[in-house]
Amino acid sequence: MRNTSVHFLRILRASGLALLMTASAGVAWADYPERTVRVVVGLQAGAGTDALARQMARQMGDKLGQAFIVENKPGAATRIGMEMVARAPADGYTIGVANAVAATFPLMFDNFAFEPGKDFTAITMLGRVPSYLAVRDDLPVKNVQEFVAYAKAHSGKLSFGHGGNGTNPHLSALVLVRSLGVKAVEVPYKGNAPTAVALGGGEIDFAMLDYPSVRPLVERGNVRLLAVTEPKRVGMTPQVPTSGEQGLTRELDGMAPWFMLVAPASTPAPVINLLSQQAGAALGSPEVNKALASAGIEVETGSPAQAQRYFMEQRERMTRLARELKVSLKN
């Protein structure tokens, strides 16, 4: 009987110690943040990702009473910035904005896959930049049906541009061409803006482009938007029908650049949850929504679990498409 009592006491002591440690951990993070938080962006200042990060950081800093400072660390297809996040202390004072390119790191690099749980913890989705099927204005098509007929009549002569090998716009153009059963000449450019200029100048027939890149050319009448590759029409261009509702392959649905807030792996759950809630609140403000809409960004938030699931779905999708379309992302 005595041994049973001693064993029971030991269990109580252990349980009490565990509860004390849990409570202490909660207290330790109760005052977070107590100093400046840096937000690492793997692209140059002025990019869409940078605009999103700065809007969000300002709102979160005002709400939490500490500065959230954006640090631009461009280079190596955002790898430099994401490595900085992955190697930072897991204390919530370094976070980062990952974009769609991060999901393709295993296809690009042999020694940095950027794995959830190992290299980073997802905090929340931030937004997406819908892509459009855009054609030069003097292409003799006014809608998707006419574009399909033209593409089939000019197989092998049809040309498209893209701003980066293996990016969403590149792969979505290849998916479209494959679905139509035609051949097309691809012309690479250094980014979406040069691609849009080339399209407006008549150098290429079509491209999959975000609205900010192509908007001035659309307004001048140099480029025409035939479809948005989203499951439903988007608020910034309600007049543009979706690719799916016009009969194009549903494989195009949702093929667009996206952004996600991440932290180093093992960052405490209370910090992750706080950041997730505050980022969602910041992006929900009318002021931020208006600013991001002007940059062509559709706000999209959610829980850390939802963000991580989305990341892995996108990784699997991009990996499958790169393999099927025989696109190599190795430098």
Word description of this protein:
With 331 residues, the protein is of the alpha/beta class. The chain folds into 2 domains: 37-128 and 257-324, 3-Layer(aba) Sandwich (D-Maltodextrin-Binding Protein, domain 2); 131-252, 3-Layer(aba) Sandwich (D-Maltodextrin-Binding Protein, domain 2). It has helices at residues 2-28, 48-64, 79-87, 105-108, 144-153, 168-180, 192-200, 211-220, 269-283, 286-294, 304-324; strands at residues 37-41, 68-72, 94-99, 120-128, 131-136, 158-162, 184-188, 206-210, 223-228, 258-264, 298-299. Strand 6 (158-162), helix 6 and strand 7 form a beta-alpha-beta unit.
Global shape: globular
Order of helices and strands: HEHEHEHEEHEHEHEHEEHHEH
Residues in β-strands, percent: 15-25%
User: How many DSSP H or I helices?
Assistant: 11
Using the 3D structure, state the CATH architecture of the largest domain. Answer: 3-Layer(aba) Sandwich
List low-pLDDT spans.
20-26
Quickly name the level 1 CATH class of the largest domain: Alpha Beta
Number of strands: 11
Q: Which secondary-structure class do the elements indicate?
A: alpha/beta
Query: Oligomeric state of the chains?
Result: single chain
CATH domain fold name of the largest domain: D-Maltodextrin-Binding Protein, domain 2
Strand order of the main beta sheet, please?
A: 2-1-3-10-4-11
The portion of residues assigned to helices is 40-55%
The CATH homologous superfamily of the largest domain is called Bordetella uptake gene, domain 1
Distance between the termini: 71 Å
Mean pLDDT over the full residue set: 90
Report Rg: 23 Å
Count of domain modules: 2
